KxDL domain-containing protein
Amino acid sequence: MDSPLEQTTANPPRLDTCMTRSGSSSSSILENSAPSGPKKLTSMLCDMVDDATMSKILECQGETLQTLQSTNHSLTKFNDFSAVRYAQCAKNLENHTRLLRDMKGDLDIIFKRIRALRTKVGTQYPTHFADIAKRRQEEEAEDD
């Protein structure tokens, strides 16, 4: 079975569909007069390239087109996949950020309560609290 590339390049379109190799056009007015600048240039370019070379050029262009279309399709699929994954990751990041903010608020409340309890214990039992504070400083000095 022929591939799509082989089907498109089996009968490549010709550059000189409107103009013959001699440069004459289908219009009778142009046949009688001298060729104008663009027509003359087109005629000269058509005469410079033979059919085999033109066929190779068109085949190469067809292969390049097929490759670019395939690459474009792959990139489109990847971009769609990336968009879905980005949406999932953004949602997860938002949830985790909210969780961290809530945890920070909870920890702030806990530390505030601990400070209040320390102050309360320090005022009710100043001697015991001072001894504990002194021991803690000694332990920290030993650890350093």
Observations:
- Confidence is low (pLDDT under 50) at residues 1-30.
- Helices lie at 4-10, 28-32, 37-48, 51-124, 126-143.
